[in-house]
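Hello support,

Our group uses your service weekly, and this is the first time we've seen a run hang past the timeout. The protein is Coiled-coil domain-containing protein 182. I'm not sure whether the cause is the sequence or the server load. Input pasted verbatim:
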Amino acid sequence: MEPLYQAGSILMTVNTLQGKKMIESGLQSGDFSLSQSWPSCLPPPADLEILQQKVAGVQRELEDFKKEALKSIHYLEDAFCEMNGALVQQEEQAARVRQRLREEEDRGIVRNKVLTFLLPREKQLREHCKRLEDLLLDRGRDALRATKKSQAD
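Update from on-call engineer: The timeout came from a worker crash unrelated to the input. Re-ran successfully.
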C-alpha cells in the first residue's frame, strides 16, 4: 500500500523514498515545484495542472495571509503606541495630582498649627474682655450711684 501525504488540500501518492524526501522538504520550504529527478510516475497532465493551480491558490492565500498579518501587526503597534502615550499622560497627571495633594497637606498642617495657637489665645482674650466689661460695668454702677448721691444731697 502506498502512503498518502496531504499538503493543504493536495493529496499525493508517494511510492519511493526519494519522493517522500522531496515532499517533506517541499512542505518545510514551501516549495512545491517538481524537480527533474522526479520518477516517471507523474500524474496525467490534467491532474498535474490542477495540482499546480491548487498550489498557486495556496501560495496566493499564504501571501494574502501574510499581508493581513502584517496589517494587523501594524495596527497593534499603532494602538500600542497610542496607549503608551495615553499612559504617559496619565502618569504625568497622577504625579501632578500627588504633588498638589502633598502641597495641600502641608498647608493643612500649617493651618492646624495656627489654629492650635490661636484657639487658646482667643479664649484668653475673651476672658480678658469679660473681666474688662465687668470692671467697666462695676465702675459705671459706682459712677451712677455717686451721681445719684450727689444729686440727692
